[in-house]
Amino acid sequence: MTTFASELGLNPVKTWIWKGFPICYQQQGESGPAIVLVHGFGASWGHWRKNIPVLAQKCRVYALDLIGFGGSAKPSPNTEINYTFDTWGQQIKDFCQQVVGKTAYLIGNSIGCIAIMQAAAIEPDISSGIALLNCSLRLLHERKRETLPLSRRLGTPLLQKILTFRTVGKFFFHQIAKRSTVKKVLQQAYIDDNAVTEELIDIIIKPAKDPGAADVFLAFTAYSSGPLAEDLLPKLSCPVIILWGTDDPWEPIDLGRELANYPQVKKFIPLQGVGHCPQDEAPSLVNSILQDWIQE
Predict the structure, then answer these.
(1) Three-class DSSP category at 124
(2) Would you call 110 helix, strand, or coil by DSSP?
(3) Which phi-psi region, left, alpha or beta, contains residue 22 (left: φ > 0; alpha: ψ -120 to 50)?
(4) What residues form DSSP beta bridges with 269?
């Protein structure tokens, strides 16, 4: 990841030890408000590579790899650590307190949105404001399955059960962790195929080769409990803005708009013709919105 960072003109990655485990993060910018960027499922700090240099012009920017992902440690599920939003929330809280050392703007994509809200709910003093980019609605959560079509309502628990068999689960993961499969998945998530580059595929695929990556994937696949966005928003004491790609195939914007009804949400900004990862697919648009928000 150090070579990757230098190729992008970014600083070498840094390591922070959390609960005895090495955690990877990128830091850029010397002054101004602090920003902490948190990626989505299967991604890493590199998913923010198009945002970090721009935001760092006027801010101190940190991009963190959640434990289990990217360059961070991947300890064994259940025996060494639990891969839950409480764990990731605690990690982000401690990172803000121990590394950032001041109140920060927390910005997340997908499940990273749930993680940053969990962190701010645990310790409100760490956050000046929160930006959610295509927040995970957690539609496979046990409390939401009744709203799904019957095939998905019955099929998801069955698939989760099957994947608990280690041999089957590992085989399933290794089928997914192929370049061709990763490319197809990204082309579903992105509307602009030109944004699905070999560099992006590398960002996703390389950590998947790490020891323990399959176990992390399977642990999260089986995780259907924990907080929902609607559980966490009322607990926040800082202002929230929401950005949402209108063409997201995984997290429908019509459902996402319902989150704007919470008083904590000051703005809901649709991003026309953009998919699930707007920070990477439409970085100029997202960077401009985030810069204006922070300056305000």
Answers:
(1) helix
(2) strand
(3) beta
(4) 243
Provide the b/e sequence for 67-90 (b: ≥16 CB within 10 Å). bbbbbbbbbebeeebebbbebbbb
User: What is the C-alpha separation between 186 and 47, in angstroms, rounded?
Assistant: 12
- What does the block give as tokens for 149? 């079509």
Instruction: Please say whether the beta carbons of 62 and 29 come within 8 A.
Output: no
* Token pair in block for residue 140: 């496979």
Q: What element of type H or E holds 64? A: strand 60-64
Q: Is the pLDDT of residue 26 over 50?
A: yes
Q: How far apart are the first and last CA of the chain?
A: 34
Which structure tokens are listed for 94?
Answer: 């401690």
Describe the strand order of the beta sheet including 265-271 as a list of residue ranges: 14-18, 21-28, 60-64, 34-38, 104-110, 127-135, 240-245, 265-271
Report the sign of the C-alpha dihedral through residues 167, 173, 178, 180, in that order: positive
User: What's the one-letter identity of residue 10?
Assistant: L
Structure tokens at 213: 């990556």
Per 3-state DSSP, what percentage of the chain is helix, strand, and coil (rounded to 5)?
45, 20, 35
Summarised one tens digit per residue, pLDDT across range 181-193 is 999 999 999 999 9
Contact call for residues 48 and 277 (beta carbons, < 8 A): no
Rounded Cα gap, residues 221 and 167, in angstroms: 15
Give tens-digit pLDDT for 139-166: 777 676 666 555 554 444 544 455 454 6
Amino acid identity for residue 107 in this structure: I
Rounded Cα gap, residues 136 and 132, in angstroms: 9
